[in-house]
Amino acid sequence: MDELNTLSWVLLGLGALVVGLSKTALPGAGTLAVVLFATALPARESTAGLLVLLIVGDLFAVWMYRHTVDWAILRRLIWPVLAGIAVGSVFLGLASDDAVRRVIGAILLTLLAFTLWRRRRGSTMKPGRLAGYGFGWLGGFTTMVANAGGPVMSLYLLGMRLDVKTFLGTAAYFFFAINLFKVPFQIGLGLLDLQMLSIVAVLVPLVVVAAFAGRWLASRIPQRAFEALVLVLTAVGALNLLI
Fold first, then answer.
1. Cβ of 69: how many Cβ atoms within 10 Å?
2. Sign of the dihedral through C-alpha 151, 156, 161, 167
3. Which residues cross the membrane (predicted)?
4. Are 152 and 142 in contact (CB under 8 A)?
5. Distance of CA 34 to the CA centre of its chain
6. Predicted confidence (pLDDT) per residue in 100-142, tens digit
7. Which of 23, 111, 186, 219 is the residue whose CA sits 20 to 30 A from 84?
8. Side-chain half-sphere of 237: how many Cα atoms within 13 Å?
């Protein structure tokens, strides 16, 4: 903790606030937290610290939407997601810090481009079983390597044309289960240790405050404007990671 400067703490604090907001009000905004954490900490270690905060945020989302879950979708995704997590774990164990940082940046830019393309195309086609396997695998890999599975799975759930509450409930349980599953991998890789937990402990209150603030802000901030801001900031951050 002594090695972190003031700017690093500011970036981590902002990232913690974004985590809380993304779980209770603004799905998809979590990619900005990925950028902030990977900028403030070594890229590989940043995934472990962010994971703990995501689980804290997941607890709020699970409690709020515990009665609206499409269990059939979750059962369909489980095996491809687990395969993606396994591949991502091997990659984290073999890749250098610079490689992980660049992969995080490339993944975020790719997801942003795909999101914008889907919006521009205005496609309403419901993803088939093969697409579900592909989204599940990529979601598992990206969530293990960069905690960036949110945009992938959000696109898939949106494509399934779920109503808002079912979407939020299904996503809440999905990410809570997946994030818990990733903890032993992070410990085994030596990324989640007591030093990282001591840093995260300082940030947990910010996640809690932002989670409650998210419920209050959700009906007051123009969704389109905020989503556009998140996309722009994430793109700038991802480019910074690639340079």
1. 19
2. negative
3. 46-65, 77-94, 100-118, 130-158, 164-185, 197-218, 224-242
4. yes
5. 7
6. 778 877 877 887 787 778 777 766 556 677 878 888 998 888 8
7. 23
8. 25
Residue written as token pair 């991998």: 185
Q: How many CA atoms lie within 13 A of 28 on its CB side?
A: 23
Place of tokens 């991502």: 88
Residue indicated by tokens 């404007």: 225
Question: Are the C-beta atoms of residues 149 and 110 closer than 8 Å to each other?
Answer: no
- Based on its alpha-carbon atoms, the radius of gyration of the chain, rounded to whole angstroms, reads 17
Q: Which tokens sit at 191?
A: 């990324």
Question: How many angstroms separate the CA atoms of 30 and 22, rounded?
Answer: 6
Q: Confirm whether pTM is higher than 0.90.
A: no
Residue 47 reports pLDDT greater than 70: yes
Closest to 85 in 3D by CA, of 12, 18, 179, 157: 179
In whole angstroms, how far apart are CA 175 and each of 58, 77, 171? 7, 12, 6
Residue 115 near residue 231 (C-beta atoms within 8 A): yes
